[in-house]
Amino acid sequence: MRITTKVRTAACLAAALTVAPLTVAAGPSSAGTVHPVAVAAQPVDGSTNVRVDGRRIILGDAPASTGSAEVRQRSGIANLDPVRFAAATSAVVVDYTAGTPDRSTAEVDVRALVRDRWSEWTPAKAGQPTALPAASDQVQLRIIVIAPPQGGSPWVGDVSVRPTGQADPSRMAIQAAPLKSRVFATREGLVGGTTANGHVIVSRDHFVALPSRRGLASNGSGNYSVKVCTASRCAFEPVWDVGPWNTKDDYWNPAAIREMWKDLPQGRPEAQAAYQSGYNGGKDQFGRTVANPAGIDLADGTFWDGLKLTDNSWVDVTYLWTGDGGRGTVSISSGYLNIRNAASSTGAIVGMAGKSAQVTVECQTTGQSVTGSQGTTNIWLRVHAGMYVSKAWVSAGTFGAC
């Protein structure tokens, strides 16, 4: 949502002089025991504003920033290398130590590779089983550290993960199709500011914010993307920020999985319930009076150019990672890819897809030959009824004919 003060920050990822291993447990051996595998305590691609000190990953030195949730804070993300088990498991136990001085927080999340796609991030409580959405032999951990503008720096250390069969099966679910809900969209603005994943916002940018880190993609990645549509246009965009209003409202999830506000219907944001019916006393999770029912924030390029909105509006949002279906990934170096109403570059523009965003693919057809990042081809992909993109700019497999 729009705010009057824009904060310019620089995200930094500082490498440590001394790198110690974190212990990561692999799957059971033939003897039934679990052997640890040592991996470097070094954040990998997509990490931002963290540093390593021995066995600890600590919040870095970048100044506080204000993103979509309008909460001024210092934050950092450390993605660790994926871990492969010897056999598939339905749950894992993550152990770690943490330090949280001066009202700061530290969290370790886990996700699983299911049917060649990464599942949503799930917070893992130290020493307790965390259910995966389906059995998997590969998981990845992510560390999130957050602190007020002034004060000490939170840290996480001594991380380990091991497979286990002890988990609540009610938390294991994969939807047959991605969830779609109608929510109120606001324009984020904040050009020059920094998003929750470390992206510095540029003029007429292309991304969205959702009020939970569970679907937050790494900077430059689109493995968590949404399709946002009006009556006549659609935009496919990566999720690069957290907000509006809340930061723990994964409203697209069913009650068994939803982090907060479990008594609300799936698909209804807490801010909408607070604004329309006085839910939670009309307040958000921070105790602020909710001034609009927003469930998604749109970057300026998405808002003005992709959807041609002139004011905040109700839109239809599909959370692509929550279900199955054909997918492709927009492969451009910057900006956006035009979506057209025919399989030709002369077709009318009816939407846009941002850099690295995933797009749904319903089928493919032949049309005008185009040369792009994926070579020269006359194949066009239908990404929505009456909407097409050239496969020359989309990394994707082969699909059935339209």
Task: Explain what you see.
With 402 residues, the protein is mainly β. It has two helices and 26 strands. The strands form five sheets. Strands 3, 4, 5, 6, 7, 8, 9, 10, 11 and 12 form a ten-stranded antiparallel sheet that branches. A six-stranded mixed β-barrel has the order 13-17-14-16-15-18. A hairpin with a 4-residue loop joins strand 15 and strand 16. The radius of gyration is 21 Å and the shape is globular. The relative contact order is 0.13.
Give the CA-based shape.
globular
Largest sheet: 10 strands, antiparallel
What's the alpha carbon Rg, rounded to whole Å? 21 Å
Low-confidence stretches: 1-31
What is the residue-averaged pLDDT? 89
Helix content: under 10%
The quaternary structure here is single chain
Q: Please report the total strand number as a whole number.
A: 26
Distance between the termini: 38 Å
Roughly what fraction of the amino acids lie in strands? 35-45%
Based on secondary structure, the structural category is mainly beta
SS field, number of helical segments: 2
Order of helices and strands: EEEEEEEEEEEEEEEEHEHEEEEEEEEE
